[in-house]
Amino acid sequence: MRSGECVQTERAEACAKKVLDSGEINDWSLEAMFICFRDSFRCVYCGVDLLKDGDFSDGDIFKYFSHFDHLLPKSKYPELKDEKSNMVLSCVPCNRRKRNRDPNKDVNTYILGSGRALEDEERQMFIDVTWNKWLEPLRQKDRVRGSTLKRLVQGCLPERARMLVESDEGQDQSAEAKNGDSSLRKKSA
Ligand SMILES: [Zn+2]
After folding, report:
1. How far are the Cα atoms of 79, 168, 177, 188 from residue 33, in angstroms, in the given order?
2. Could you tell me if 87 and 131 lie in one domain?
3. Does the predicted TM-score (pTM) go above 0.85?
4. Could you tell me the distance, in angstroms and rounded to a whole number, from the CA of residue 91 to the centre of ligand 1?
5. Dist. CA 153–CA 165, nearest whole Å
6. pLDDT band at 63, cuts 50/70/90?
7. From CA 83, how far away is CA 117, in angstroms rounded?
């Protein structure tokens, strides 16, 4: 059932093939490259731009691009384990938070066992359900936890270390959007 595949999918297939045909990249599968193009190299959930914001300083690009999330979890839908229409590009935090939650549970557009490909609009609906129902609330919660941890840790730090943390504080907000830069800075400091 491929009727739902649209221009987005066709273009992604052509782009992925073009990149791999160049011969400059040998360790990517066509399927992985296709998923990255289809999802515009962004986490489908939070929208983080993995090409722009990923930290490639250690040369390990797979650390960022090997996180293909099974939208409908493979534990419950084993027939979709290798179905690329069920695999989406996800950043590490979103992938960890989602775990094996099932966005089809309430919507029920996909019948368990049918083994058909997900249509583009259907996939987007599952993505929206996942983000709104689980990921966005969890992200807020993690932020609160993070600031509590920071307050508690800072209270225990010796004065010199506390000053270092505080001098770094002003850069925190931009660092959140650019994780790669902040980890680099902390390593070299
Ligand atoms: Zn994300």
Report:
1. 22, 37, 24, 33
2. yes
3. no
4. 4
5. 10
6. low
7. 7
